[in-house]
Amino acid sequence: MTFDYGQNVTFDAVKLSFHKGDKRTTKFDIETSLDGSTWTKAVTDGESTGKSLNLERFDFPETTARYIRYVGKGNSSSAWNSVTEFVGVNCKTDFCSDQELPRADILKPVLIEATSTMVMAPSACLIMI
């Protein structure tokens, strides 16, 4: 997919959302061009989190371009590419939230096993034995 912004614009990120973006990851490159013929990679081997249907932001060094191209590399289920929303932005002038940045999990599930017995005393206080 190639997007023509009609004039040279300064970009430093794209915001993308994906069909079934909460169930699978999607891989892609982002390329920019001043003339629609010569392309420069802004994002190489980008990958969505697979955890969100909302926009995810992918930052890159500030560049001026008229065209932005999305080069799909498939998703974790198939070779298909299903972008539901695409926005080229400059976070210095456009709204950008840290909530849009892909995040690594910080909480990991752990198994908790009981090591003592919990009993309710007559006074309704919880007592650990």
Automatic annotation (TrEMBL):
<dbReference type="InterPro" id="IPR000421">
    <property type="entry name" value="FA58C"/>
</dbReference>
<keyword id="KW-0456">Lyase</keyword>
<protein>
    <submittedName>
        <fullName>Alginate lyase</fullName>
        <ecNumber>4.2.2.3</ecNumber>
    </submittedName>
</protein>
<dbReference type="Pfam" id="PF00754">
    <property type="entry name" value="F5_F8_type_C"/>
</dbReference>
<feature type="domain" description="F5/8 type C">
    <location>
        <begin position="1"/>
        <end position="89"/>
    </location>
</feature>
<dbReference type="GO" id="GO:0045135">
    <property type="term" value="F:poly(beta-D-mannuronate) lyase activity"/>
</dbReference>
<dbReference type="InterPro" id="IPR008979">
    <property type="entry name" value="Galactose-bd-like_sf"/>
</dbReference>
